[in-house]
Design brief:
By secondary structure, this protein is an alpha/beta fold. Helices cover 39% and strands 13% of the residues. The radius of gyration is 14 Å and the shape is globular.
Length: 127
């Protein structure tokens, strides 16, 4: 991931929610789907610690936190991370967000998670 890519996502952060017909509905729908996978397929309780390692503006992290998961999020776009923080605060959700590259998560220290997710268009950036 280059600085140019981070700059691109920084410039999109204020408008990224517009890729969804209804972002609030998308947050809830994706959380329900992910929760089902985490609980039924992975055997994790709703109290599980989840890392969203390419969280962007928080679409999945916010929804999972609203369902009771203990979610942390990180992204390499500082502006997207700030937007995610604002959105979490607006929803009264305690989700720590930090700036980190999903290819190197050492800045998270000795944090331990029950599951790590990376959703949406994050995977093409691994090339």
């Amino acid at each position: 991931m280059t600085l140019d890519t981070a700059d691109c996502y920084d410039s999109l952060a204020d408008h990224y929610h517009l890729i969804f017909e209804n972002w609030e509905v998308a947050i809830q729908r994706q959380a329900a789907s992910l929760s089902s996978i985490l609980e039924l397929k992975c055997g994790l309780p709703k109290s599980a610690r989840i890392l969203d390692c390419a969280c962007g503006i928080g679409t999945q992290a916010l929804g999972l936190a609203a369902l009771g998961f203990r979610v942390s999020g990180c992204d390499f776009s500082p502006h997207a991370v700030e937007r995610a923080r604002v959105e979490a605060s607006r929803r009264h959700l305690d989700v720590p967000f930090s700036v980190a590259n999903m290819l190197d998560l050492r800045c998270l220290g000795d944090s331990q998670f029950d599951a790590v997710i990376s959703m949406d268009n994050a995977l093409p950036h691994l090339v």
